[in-house]
Design goal:
Elements (H helix, E strand, L loop, with lengths): L2 H27 L6 H5 L7 E5 L2 E6 L6 E6 L10 H9 L3 E5 L12 H8 L5 E6 L2 H12 L7
Parallel strand pairs: 3-4, 3-5
Antiparallel strand pairs: 1-2, 2-4
Length: about 150
């Protein structure tokens, strides 16, 4: 390989590396954080149990839900921002799971719903939804996996 071609390849690799590092940094800085009401909604109480390991999981305390909602966050939105709505849905008797997306973009985790469905075999019916880009990726998952979700 000639020295000129090698130099060009090194420059291209360096530019790509800078772009990737910049994008990862931007995805962290651009993410909208949750408001205090959302942080407050993350507490377990006598109505809703909240778990926050790999996913945010909201489960009603008084009943064993048979229907669950997987909610994909919008692009660059902290999943915790959806806690108040997820808590209300769980209080109505449904399991709600909000996955954390790689780089805060659902396009990089569009198939996480499959893992969630598998992790909760007691749930008989699943719906997927989301906000903005998350909604688009949830719809894409539902279209590609019609046997996994009911809505």
């Amino acid at each position: 390989m000639s020295k000129k071609i090698r130099t060009i390849l090194i420059v291209i690799a360096a530019v790509l590396a800078v772009l990737v590092v910049s994008f990862v940094g931007y995805s962290r800085l651009a993410t909208a954080g949750p408001e205090q009401a959302a942080l407050d909604a993350l507490a377990t109480d006598d109505v809703v149990e909240v778990q926050s390991d790999d996913w945010l999981v909201f489960r009603p305390v008084a009943s064993a839900p048979q229907t669950g909602l997987i909610f994909y966050p919008g692009g660059f939105v902290d999943p915790r921002a959806y806690a108040p709505a997820a808590r209300e849905i769980a209080a109505a008797g449904y399991l709600v799971v909000i996955p954390t997306m790689p780089l805060n973009l659902a396009i990089f985790g569009a198939n996480q719903a499959a893992e969630i469905v598998e992790a909760f075999p007691e749930i008989e019916q699943w719906a997927v939804g989301g906000h903005s880009l998350g909604g688009a990726m949830a719809a894409q998952f539902a279209a590609g996996n019609p046997d996994a979700v009911d809505g």
